[in-house]
C-alpha cells in the first residue's frame, strides 16, 4: 500500500518537485503491480487531495497563518479519512485489489479547482 497524492495524477503551478515525486510514487506502484501479477500480492495506492495536516505549515516554512489559508472556506479531508480508506482497501477479499483510489474532499475537483465558501 502506497500513499500518493492527487499531485501524482496532475500537476499544479509551483509544485514541480512535489508533483514529480508523487508521479514517481504512482509509477512505482503501477510497476510493482505489474511485476507482482500472478503472485497473490496486492499493490494499491490511496491518493488524497487536500488533507488538513502539517503539510501546509511545512510547505510555507512554518508560516501557520499562510498555511491556514490553504483550508480557508473548504472542508478538507482529515488524516482519519485517509486512514479509514487505507484500512478499507487493505481488508478487501483476497481476490480484490483496489489499484488506485483518488480520495478528494467533496469541494475539490482537481489540484487547481476547489469550491470555497
Q: Which architecture does the CATH hierarchy give at level 2?
A: 3-Layer(aba) Sandwich
CATH top level is: Alpha Beta
Number of contiguous helices: 4
Shape by Cα distribution: globular
Tell me what you see in this structure:
The protein is mostly helical and 117 residues long. The protein has a single domain, classed as NAD(P)-binding Rossmann-like Domain (Rossmann fold). The protein is built from four helices and three strands. It has helices at 16-36, 55-59, 64-69, 79-90; strands at residues 2-3, 45-48, 100-103. α1 (16-36) links the parallel β1 and β2. The longest helix is centred in the N-terminal third of the chain and has 21 residues, at 16-36.
Keywords:
4 helices, 3 strands, 117 residues, Rossmann fold, 3-stranded parallel sheet, mainly alpha
Quick summary:
With 117 residues, the protein is mainly alpha-helical. The chain is 38% helix and 9% strand.
Topology:
Elements: E1 2-3, H1 16-36, E2 45-48, H2 55-59, H3 64-69, H4 79-90, E3 100-103
Parallel strand pairs: 1-2, 2-3
